[in-house]
Amino acid sequence: MEKEKSSQSLINSDFADVMFNRHSVRVFKPGVTIPREELQEMISQATTAPSACNLQSWHFVVLDTPEAKEKVKPAVMKFNYPQLDTASAVVFIVGDTKSHEVYRKVWTKVYEEGHITKERLEQIFQTFLPLYENASKEFLTLDATIDSAMVGMQLLLLARAHGYEANPLSGYDFAKIIPALDLDPERFVPVMAIAIGKSDETPIKTQRYDAKTLTEFR
Ligand SMILES: Cc1cc2nc3c(=O)[nH]c(=O)nc-3n(C[C@H](O)[C@H](O)[C@H](O)COP(=O)(O)O)c2cc1C
User: Fold this and answer.
1) In terms of C-beta density within 10 A (0-12 exposed, 13-18 middle, 19 or more buried), how is residue 28 classed?
2) Between the N and C ends of the chain, which has fewer C-beta atoms within 10 Å?
3) Which domains does the chain carry?
4) How far apart are alpha carbons 144 and 99 in whole angstroms?
């Protein structure tokens, strides 16, 4: 297994601790730099997330300089300034509504590596490509949003596994954020940002509804 996708690069591979002791941290220690190589590694690891038809309709913009953060600030709601100002990096995850345009490549690789037959490859193309090529903008937006949320959850946990804390945030102007990130608003849709850094506060231990009251077995 590649080192990138093994537990070797994880400081904390105690799944229960990573998941159950995660809380949103919104104030981070100043002056902490996360090397871009490590940020890239966390993102690459997060992309092991499943996605609809394996379209992987996600895209990442990492803001780790004061200048880059300042540029998006006018589009971000004020209550999120502490995270924006203090995080070592804020990773904006946006949905890509044109991911199906490279769909052939990813599945052709699976075929070339011998994991599926030529017939299965053709069957995948015939089943799924028309679905996406003829899909409405609304469908593509929803699909890309769900995929991006899946990868976002993984990134939140990976931040902890790498010894950092994080906060997911979508409190920003959805109409302004994509242009503020210098992305094409016809193609990309806002989903969430993940602020990552070393914690400088004791996070609130939030409560959950009793899942038993929200669960139905049929
Ligand atoms: C989609 C989404 C959007 C969120 N947006 C914000 C936000 O804009 N600002 C913020 O401080 N927290 C935001 N949060 C964090 C939630 O407030 C937090 O996850 C929730 O209160 C539960 O707390 P916990 O993360 O500590 O378990 C967001 C979380 C999610 C999943």
Assistant:
1) buried
2) C
3) 10-214 (3.40.109.10)
4) 8
Of ligand 1's atoms, which has the minimum distance to the CA of residue 191?
Answer: 1
Q: How far is the CA of 144 from the centre of ligand 1 (A)?
A: 20
- Spatial CB neighbours of 172, under 8 Å, sequence gap ≥ 6: 72, 75, 76, 77, 80, 190, 193
DSSP 8: G
Q: At a CB cut-off of 8 Å and minimum separation 6, what does 192 contact?
A: 93, 148, 149, 152, 168, 169, 170
Residue nearest to atom 26 of ligand 1 (CA): 23
How do residues 25-34 score in pLDDT, each as one tens digit?
A: 999 999 999 9
Residue among 170, 189, 191, 192 to mutate when testing ligand 1 (max atoms within 8 A of CB)? 170
Q: What is the pLDDT of residues 173-186, one digit of tens each?
A: 999 999 999 999 99
**C-alpha span between 20 and 22 (Å, rounded):** 6
